[in-house]
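I am still getting used to backbone structure tokens and would like to learn alongside you. Label the sequence line and the structure token line clearly, so we can match residues to local backbone shapes. Would you write everything just below, so we can both look at the same thing?
***
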Amino acid sequence: MNARQMVAKELVAVAKMLTAEANVVSLDVPLLIRVMEYSKEDAKTDMDLHVAATKMIELSGEGRTLTMDDYDEIVGGASGD
């Protein structure tokens, strides 16, 4: 393997790592249960779920576990409220 191939391999590995980190959403159990209830009982449209998922992704970008303190911000913009 030449130097160019080694660098390319390393860049691919870094890209995979960054992509994997960007796709992680961490919820504590009480919030997980409430979000599941919201999706079954309160969300009126698929767009409501999309908005909530997008908000969870944005909030998780801060690298923390989401809790019930985040619930209103997650579903606050949905038409189900």
